[in-house]
């Protein structure tokens, strides 16, 4: 994935767009639940300072499994990994970064994912949109699956991941390692152009539209819209 790639489309009313061969895996433009225009784009090295500020402002209770790191120096090292050995995306509204998601390592067939949203941007569907983009880009980039780590006592999150098709592949002390195959219908669904969203896919997980981003709620206070 080109970390410095720019996308040329500037149209905000994309509701009837059927896509072009030049589109990214998911249309980058969206409106949040407050009708604020936003864009999801590749994370660039120049974003580091703003991302560090966003992460330092997070409530300590929002950190999970030691992430994001709690100090500026460790944050910068962690964010550099997404540039040097992974890939990630940021969400922007009103010219400010309000969310970040990514995977490492880049060359893994089954990389590990993270997703976080700024404190003052929660409840607006931004984390949900970021995670849809992550799945779309991962599938388009040729990854076979996505993996994550979740607290074993977070029953709600574990149940949602399980309903989506994530399988527990390893149980560690207090944690589950889970995996989602990108051969699942969800990968195709999130890549649909705006004009085709809302269609059903035979064999897809019925809970996807309502429950997928309950997971994000744990990290970002969000409730999801449909695709």
Q: Can you offer a commentary on this structure?
A:
Residues 200-227 have low confidence and may be disordered. The chain has seven helices and eight strands. With 227 residues, the chain is an alpha+beta fold. The strands form two sheets. Strands 1-2-3-4-5 form a five-stranded antiparallel sheet, sandwiched between helices. Strands 6-8-7 form a three-stranded antiparallel sheet. The two termini are 23 Å apart.
Average pLDDT figure: 80
Ends: how far apart? 23 Å
The multimeric state of the shown protein is single chain
Low-pLDDT windows of residues: 200-227
* Main sheet strand line-up: 1-2-3-4-5
Give the helix proportion (percent range): 25-40%
Assess the beta-strand content as a share of residues: 15-25%
Please outline the helices and strands:
Blueprint (H helix, E strand, L loop, with lengths): L28 E3 L5 E6 L5 H9 L15 H13 L2 E7 L2 E9 L7 E6 L8 H15 L4 E7 L3 H10 L2 E6 L2 E7 L3 H6 L17 H4 L2 H7 L7
List keywords for this structure.
3-stranded antiparallel beta sheet; disordered C terminus; 22% strand; single chain; 227 residues; 5-stranded antiparallel beta sheet
Concise summary:
The strands form two sheets. The chain has a five-stranded antiparallel sheet with strand order 1-2-3-4-5, sandwiched between helices. A three-stranded antiparallel sheet has the order 6-8-7.
């Amino acid at each position: 994935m080109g970390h410095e790639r720019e996308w040329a489309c500037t149209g905000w009313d994309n509701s009837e767009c059927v896509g072009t061969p030049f589109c990214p895996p998911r249309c980058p433009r969206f409106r949040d639940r407050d009708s604020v225009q936003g864009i999801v784009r590749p994370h660039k090295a120049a974003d580091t300072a703003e991302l560090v500020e966003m992460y330092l402002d997070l409530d300590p209770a929002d950190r999970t499994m030691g992430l994001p790191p709690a100090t500026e120096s460790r944050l910068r090292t962690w964010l550099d990994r997404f540039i040097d050995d992974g890939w990630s995306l940021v969400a922007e509204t009103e010219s400010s970064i309000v969310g970040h998601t990514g995977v490492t390592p880049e060359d893994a067939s089954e990389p590990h994912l993270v997703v976080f949203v700024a404190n003052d941007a929660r409840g607006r569907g931004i984390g949900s949109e970021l995670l849809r983009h992550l799945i779309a880009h991962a599938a388009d980039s040729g990854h076979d699956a996505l993996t994550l780590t979740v607290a074993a006592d977070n029953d709600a999150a574990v149940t949602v991941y399980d309903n989506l098709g994530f399988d527990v592949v390893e149980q560690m002390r207090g944690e589950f390692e889970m995996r989602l195959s990108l051969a699942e219908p969800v990968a195709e669904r999130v890549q649909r152009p705006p004009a085709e969203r809302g269609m059903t896919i035979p064999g897809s997980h019925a809970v996807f539209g309502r429950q997928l981003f309950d997971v994000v709620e744990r990290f970002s206070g969000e409730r999801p819209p449909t695709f």
